[in-house]
Amino acid sequence: MLGYTLKRLGLAVVIVSLAMAILFVMIYLIPGDPAAVALGPRATEAMRESLRVKMGLDQPVWVQFWNFFTRAWTGDLGNEVLSDRPVAQVVMEQLPHTLALIAGGMVWSVALGIPLGCWAAVKRGSWADRVVGIVSVAVIAVPSFVVAIYALLIFAVTLRWLPAIGAGDAGDLGDRLTHLILPSLAVGLGWVGYIARMVRASMLEVLEAQHIRTARAFGLPETMITYRYALTIAILPTVTLLGVGIGQMLSSAVFAEIVFARPGVGKLVYDAILTRNYPLVTGAVLVTTVLFVLINLLADLLIGALDPRVRSRF
Amino acid sequence: MTVLAIRGLNVSFATEGGDLHALRDVAFDVPARRIVGIVGESGCGKSTLINAILGLLADNGRITGGQIVFEGQDLTRADAAQMRALRGPRISTVFQDPMGALNPVLSVGRQMRNIQYRSSLGRAARDARSAEMLQKVRIPDPEAALSRYPHEFSGGMKQRIAIAMALMMEPALLIADEPTTALDATLEVATIELLRDLQDQIGCSVLFISHHLGVIAELCDDVVVMYAGEVVERGTVRQVFRTPRHPYTARLLECDPARQSGRTRHLPVIPGDLPDLRNRPGGCIFAARCDRRGEACAAPQTEREPAPGHRARCILAEAT
To answer: Given A210, A217, A233, which is nearest B87 (Cβ)?
Structure first.
């Protein structure tokens, strides 16, 4: 398991490095002079020149890349334009909110999606299966910002059950959690559908397997067969799917953060783009990439922990 | 004493093309402590028969008539809970494919412990029992084997583990569904000897399904020959193999590669195909492929008993 972990970790470093290179090239290719954008139309050529030197833009492109690359690995993402604070610090301040939001989305999608998919598979062909199928497709089809707006209108504005905006008081965990319910629902609802469909499909496949027939031939109780013999296998593709799904949840988080006026990386990037605060955009995107890679790494390790066949292959 | 008695068993599957009559009027006995072989080509209804006995027919399958009497209880009238109580402790099964028969994500020990879920023994005692069974099927270092996963064992070992699991609860009847077909010849012999040893120790009956005539002759006491969902001939191995009374059995024995005396590039085959089980012929099921058919074969055939215990569903079996 240690060798497997190290291998996956090595791969993660390679992926993040590649992402950095692509990000650098993209920023480099954006037309316009970053110094001119930062200083505005009234700056003199001398001011622009001195900022270019300060930002290292006078160096050859490969030196610029090397500086960006090495600094980023040490956690130095430069300073943002508006307040001149370190980008890493600004992003890290917002990151816990986004992490909480995505974790909440995961809780919704897993807590509803897995039992629904399992239920539909066991009751295959019944009305329950059909209802789960229709609901799954419906929630996948509805964009997360629509869920966000309607959840806000129904539960916060009309019914007044839950708070509408913000992240809650810093010291009050209960308040934080009640503020998290609706935004995380907006992030996770579509994934309830994906997971339910995925779990249903893989459950149906596993329930047909020879070893399930063997388990039945030994007279094991159906609940034991469903949950310990079938679901433990059927869950594996879902874990991988969720790892990839984090990427989509991160983009849904942007909408949820805007609609619910929550702090978070998504809101930060949105504001940074509007103010053309490029170092902040770069830094936030990079942190998000690292987050995505780390969560996928976690999903791979989880698969290794759940599936002895995978574990032994590495 | 008879452990399993099947009488007039009919099984149908509802398909889009109409009802598929998979088993018709199947009857045979499995006496106590005997090994009964079932032989027949693919599609003859062997698997359907096993599933019917185990109460594990697919959703579209249904027993339309007859009885499956196991230890005095008619299984065709048993409900799901009664069947589940029998499967494992009283009727156990070893399936054909050792690669897929064990759960890939649970350790061998965990699976063997789960099989004993009805037992009042504690965890340590159950594990000791599992290790004892692994010892019996000659798995080296049985205690360590309990914590390993199926993919860490070879095919032959997996099949021995499956046998250990099946016999752990000391059932009255072991159903072995082509347990050696997926193994190579050396392993096949070893596995058959192991099965016979264990059967002797436990004193159970065995229903051994195979299409390998040599294995049946070697292992079994009695044999049941099936063709297209019907029992065409049954009797002791000696009766059926020495003096086959049904033309299908005779042709099947002629086609056995082990019986070829000279070198040949062309193994004998029985010309023709299995009949369409959705539209069974009214008369003898084998008539269309039979080179000895006559006028009378168009009428439905009953079992004749040319010798005590030796039965064949053929008009020719009456002649002598």
So the answer is: A217
- Which tens digit of pLDDT belongs to each residue from B34-62? 999 999 888 788 889 999 999 989 889 99
Contact call for A217 and B56, based on CB within 8 A: yes
E strands, chain B, are 2-15, 18-31, 35-39, 61-70, 73-74, 91-94, 173-177, 205-210, 222-227, 230-236, 304-307, 310-312
CATH fold of A96-274:
MetI-like fold (1.10.3720)
Substitution target from A123, A211, A212 for chain B, most B beta carbons within 10 A: A211
Shared-domain flag, residues B241 and B297: yes
Of the candidates B129, B155, B170, which is a domain's last residue? Answer: B170
The residue extents of the domains of chain A are 11-76, 96-274
Q: Give the nearest chain B residue to A233 (CA atoms).
A: B105
Touching B: A residues 186-205, CB under 8 Å: none
Number of H helices, E strands in chain B: 11, 12
**CA of B14 vs chain A CAs: smallest distance (Å):** 16
CA distance A34 to A58: 12
Instruction: Please check whether residue B303 touches A, CB under 8 A.
Output: no
Q: Is the Cβ–Cβ distance between B66 and B25 less than 8 Å?
A: yes
Contacts of B152 in chain A (CB under 8 A): 312
Residues B227 and B122 reside in one and the same domain: no
Measure the CA angle with vertex B285, ends B279 and B291; round to 5°: 130
For residue range A9-33, what is the model confidence (pLDDT) as tens digits? 888 889 889 988 888 888 778 776 7
Would you call A211 and B92 a contact, using CB atoms and an 8 Å cutoff?
A: no
Split at pLDDT 50, 70, 90, the class of B319 is low
Let me know whether B76 and B106 are in one domain. no
Could you report the per-residue pLDDT of B95-142, keeping only the tens digit for each? 888 788 899 999 999 999 999 988 888 889 999 999 999 998 889 999
